[in-house]
Amino acid sequence: MTTAPHTDPATTSAPFAVPATRAPGCPFDPAPAVDRARQEAPVTRATLWDGSPVWLVTRHQDVRAVLGDPRFSADANRPGFPFLTAGARVLAEDTTFSFIRKDDPEHARLRRMLTADFMIKKVEAMRPQVQEITDDLLDRMTDGRTSADLVTEFALPLPSLVICLLLGVPYEDHAFFQERSRVLLTLRSTPDEVRTSQNELLDYLTRLAAKKRKEPDDGIISRLVARGELSDEAIAGMGRLLLIAGHETTANMTALGTLALLRNPSQLELLRTEPSLIKGAVEELLRYLTIIHNGVPRTATEDVTVGGTTVRAGEGVLCTLNAANRDEAVFPGGDALDVTRDARLHVAFGFGIHQCLGQPLARIEMQIALETLLRRLPDLHLAIPFEEVPFRHDMGIYGVHALPVGW
Amino acid sequence: MRVTVDQDKCCGAGSCVLSAPDVFDQRDEDGIVVLLDARPRAELHEAVREAAAVCPAAAIALEEATERV
Ligand code: HEM
Ligand code: SF4
């Protein structure tokens, strides 16, 4: 009987819809349904927006096992791939979606064209430049004022300026690409909206690649052009991945991280009195907040047993990084923010061969941004009631839409 | 302790270098792992174990000396 339901009694309770909703008043915690799944049925059935079923993988060890297992595919064009939104399916129609949704060996071939640009020593050498950009932004934000929106004046422009510099994309165009990114990351965007924004972004980057062919510089796009191995369209696909992944993520971690510290004054105080804690604090914030909050999608290419449950070939799974990062087996007392914790085993950057390429850069950006912010603005505080902070429940990358602060 | 790395598996995000910079480095041309020290001294063992645990691509293998536990 090939259609027999999976027999683990814990998985037979009614499936819930994903993305699941967070509890009111607990904006830093995973949705209660996902948290409960981790404790009661770590590999459990859920339902996607279009009614199709998906396995939710919630425990730390199972998430690492799935994401590290080549029998699970990240190829969005493989039948059964679990798309989180209608828009995500549209994105996959495009073959230039680049290596985040491809398998090895093609994934490795493309990723290895960029690994040198994000390796530790290369990124460490950028610290002075990132510090300068950070100081400039804070000079401008605080000039003659005592309050501002931290997102638009600091958290967003910092990584945008850095990724533009690295790619060789003119920062003057930031309103254009940030608006398109926003549409691509909004869960409720219609397929048409996604298609339009995606095409505009790709056209822009294809034209930029063509321009670099004539006027080369030492940015990543220009160097990809110079390799002569990729079409301008394929380079545009890589550029889009880097541009969106490179600024929306760090921007949201910086703003949400600041807010989490403001809500945990004893942790903030610890970090202020002991700035050398900053590296560990950034890892802990990555763990505690896990902004890629809706699950990382994969498809089983053969029958695989995960946490005692059989996932059949062709079935989709979502690895919920935020639940895994609260797993008590790895992070005791994990529902609390503790900047002195050793959080380095977190999976906020994913796991396996697709683990975040930009993580060294994200780390130094967050370390410098938070250290400098706390040092220069000793009276930093939230300028609106906490209950009024607009959280990004509606976005693929979690965070806050705005963060009015005073100092 | 004996350390080996598999450069074909490595995806080059450098977590091992953050954990144990005396033992791991990245190739200049493509960021892929380079082993600096296949038999690290005892003070480094904890850091090397952490590097192997955080490596996302299972590219680091450790052979712990069993004779002197
Ligand atoms: C706090 C900041 C960041 C977080 C939390 C984050 C998170 C992630 C996660 C979870 C993945 C894995 C997705 C999957 O397996 O499907 C990923 C992949 C990726 N990230 Fe990041 N990221 C951050 C910053 C950055 C930055 C700054 C860049 C680039 C400059 C970047 C570029 C990428 C790329 C290119 C991939 C695809 C890697 C691959 O498929 O091999 N990310 N990121
Ligand atoms: S941690 Fe693993 S995948 Fe990353 S650079 Fe080191 S060996 Fe390579």
TrEMBL record, chain A:
Pfam families, A to Z: p450
> What keywords sit in the KW lines?
Heme, Iron, Metal-binding, Monooxygenase, Oxidoreductase
Respond yes or no to whether keyword Heme is given for this record: yes
Sorted alphabetically, which Gene3D superfamilies does this protein's record hold?
Cytochrome P450 (1.10.630.10)
Query: Where is this chain compositionally biased, Polar residues type?
Result: 1-14
Spell out the InterPro entries in the cross-references. Answer: Cyt_P450, Cyt_P450_B, Cyt_P450_CS, Cyt_P450_sf
Its name, as the record gives it, is Cytochrome P450
Disordered: where is this region? 1-28
Q: Which family does it belong to?
A: Belongs to the cytochrome P450 family.
Q: What is the protein's species of origin?
A: Streptomyces catenulae
Automatic annotation (TrEMBL), chain B:
Domain (4Fe-4S ferredoxin-type) ranges? 1-29
Q: Which domain of life does the protein's organism represent?
A: Bacteria
The cofactor(s) it depends on are:
[3Fe-4S] cluster
The record's keywords, sorted A to Z, are: 3Fe-4S, Electron transport, Iron, Iron-sulfur, Metal-binding, Transport
Is-annotated flag, keyword Transport?
A: yes
What Pfam families does UniProt report for this protein, alphabetically?
A: Fer4_13
Extract the Gene3D superfamilies matched here. 3.30.70.20
Matching PANTHER family: FERREDOXIN
What is this protein's function per UniProt? Ferredoxins are iron-sulfur proteins that transfer electrons in a wide variety of metabolic reactions.
Question: In its UniProt entry, what is this protein called?
Answer: Ferredoxin
Organism of origin is Streptomyces catenulae
